[in-house]
Amino acid sequence: MTAVHRGLVSRLTRRTLVRANGCGLSVRRLLMAVVAAASLGGLIDAAVVAPTQAQSFTYNPLPPRPKPPKAANDNQMLVQATEVDYDYNNSRVSAVGNVQLFYNGTSVEADRVIYDQKTKRLHAEGNIRMTDADGKITYAEIMDLSDDYRDGFVDSLRVDTADQTRMAASRADRSSGNYTVFENGVYTACAPCKDDPKKPPLWQVKGARIIHDQQEKMLYFETAQLEFFGVPLAYMPYFSTPDPTVKRKSGFLMPGYFPGTTNTGFGVEVPYYWAIAPDMDATITPRFMTRQGVMLQGEFRQRLIDGAYQIRAYGIDQLDPGAFAGQPGDRQFRGAVDTKGQFALNDKWVWGWDGVLMSDYYFFSDYRLYQYRDPLGSFLLLPTEALSQLYLTGVGNRSFFDARTMYWLSYSGNQSQVPIVYPVIDYSNVLNYPVFGGEFSYKTNFVNLSRDDAVFDPITTVANTNGLCTTASADPLARMPSQCLLRGFPGTYTRLTAEAQWRKSFTDPFGQIWTPFASLRADAINSSVSNQPGVSNYLPIGDTQAFRLMPTVGLEYRYPFINIQPWGSTTVEPIAQIIIRPNETYAGKLPNEDAQSMVFDASNLFSVDKFSGYDRVEGGGRANVGVQSTTQFDKGGAVKVLFGESYHLFGLNSFAVQDAINTGINSGLDKPRSDYVASASYSPNSTYTFSVRSRMDEQTWNVQRFEAEGRANFNRWSVSVLYGNYAAQPELGYLTRREGILTSGSLKVANNWVVSGSARWDLEANKINQYVLGAGYVDDCFVLAANYVTSYSYSAGTTPPVLSHAFMFQIGLRTLATTSTTSSSAGLQ
């Protein structure tokens, strides 16, 4: 019996008097056995296991059930019946004919209810139906229980729960106030057939006996079998599971198969879950491998009043280290520890950490742990480093603070080329009161980092094939700006940035919007660049102290024209922005760590500073002009179009300055007149969405960057297509045009049959280099699906990704289990 049901029974012991036929009648026990029967039915939840998220297919959503009206919890019982009799001689109370009892949101219906005060037993019979406050419905034909609910039986028990699962038993017996035995129990999460409710459901679990031990809070199943359409397909003579009142219980979890590699051998994982206390637990998972022996994995979790943390540890004493000869894994003991946690100081501040420590950087990759556990996930997000950090974050109504130290553990073995950040601090705030009638805000950024060795990236075919960007190359062209980019400098870098901004909008009598703005930014920089081969070709060697000041004033002008028609309205808005400021000082002569990405498009056309980080700052006079049109339709839908261009007016063009990584070169802003940028989006309704983003050469109108995306989502099918076309950017290492299509779709070919697929087509190579094909049967209680996937498998080090093929099979029984099996070139997962 669940805790909820126990509480309900305990409340029923309060005496409530109901008068019928002029006789005083104590009926506080009339409902007890029926409530107890519902408690018996409540054990249906024991079969419920939290459903696992399916990889590709999920159950059809269940139709919502109307919530029962909330009843007053006044401990008053209402009894209605055609006849209520009191037998003084035999001390029996009988309610006969359409008996209805209502108590604290629970209703009971039966043909006849009899309570014997001498034997203290309650007997109910005929069309018993009980609906509790949560919407669970229990049916029975005969019920006979003692008034203390220690002994008794219920015949023809059937339960429908609020989550639309169902259970039935020919009989339920209770003894010693602890044991309840269900005879011939049946459980399913499938709805009965509408045309023939007696027809077996798609699947059901049958058990000759289901025994509930209330003290141990365990359920024991005897002679259980899984049936599909009434045909037994799986048999298990005995198994046990915790009852519904148990949220967590120690025990073995479902074993797993590890496909392994030739270096590790295949293996089996047998996880054991340990419920240590209400606030902490652990999972211990030994992996038994044919070649390397036993690897122990353990995870400890604890939730505290203000947060939670977890620690995972791995360790193996390898039986055959020579299998990894010539690799970092050629050692006796290998292991790792990773941890993370987050705690709230109050409703605005949190602090936390992430940490990773490994014996060698190939460990996670060799044994498919951590980020490498999911091959599809590692394809989408290539794990090149493991991040360890300690952070403090605060969020106010109009302010933000974040401070953290970061250490990346390289999976490539080039640890000396990965920076250590200690720390990086950001703070921003917008004052909630006007300053000179306008909005005033300010922000600061502080960073301190160091790196041992330089990182060079090739940008030409010659540099790539001849290794000109390695520190060991003695070629005269080695590590030259014409052949390589200095992606990361060796040494130490410290910068403090502070910026204050003010802006105010005016609308004149003609409807024109004028927005003057001003800002002042200051940067204090100290860099110490190590004298390593080739570095002097990009940055000054030694210590450099610099102070960079950037005052900015500007004016933005908008003049919206509105045209209202019977079908909707259109707003056409010319926009012009002029910015006056001095040149960027030390342009290209300082390290650039956080502003290496530069994409010019319609989204940042009117940004005052178009650099993505603080290490570079835009200087010189600039004008940004464009026109924006927005059309709103009365019947729904909108069209938004933006077209514009940027002009360098005077001074030094920051985007034309060649720095260590050529930021701004080939961006479309590195000339007096920028490329044209445009965007358009159309959403006629919730079914369709279309968007286009482009950048065109300002002289030839050749497409430099183009993206088009379309989505459609109907009841039976959905499709999405993304097309990208990007011109060559040789100064950044992109030597040829890149063009491709990424598409995905699904189609419901029948009521319960779905096919899906996705593909990535490299148009330049005229090759589909990734695709997924799947088909499955899906309903409200069952999933059966198969997928064929091509994707890239990544490993640590400098080994390039390898295209692999995999077949995935998935089966799911709602509330019981969802499992998937993958067969690939690496084996079975």
Automatic annotation (TrEMBL):
It comes from the Bacteria. Keywords: Cell outer membrane, Membrane, Signal. Residues 333-753 form the LptD C-terminal domain. GO terms for cellular component: cell outer membrane; transporter complex. Pfam families: LptD, LptD_2. The keyword Transport does not apply. Involved in the assembly of lipopolysaccharide (LPS) at the surface of the outer membrane. Component of the lipopolysaccharide transport and assembly complex. This is LPS-assembly protein LptD. It comes from Bradyrhizobium vignae. The lineage of its organism: Bacteria, Pseudomonadati, Pseudomonadota, Alphaproteobacteria, Hyphomicrobiales. The gene is lptD.
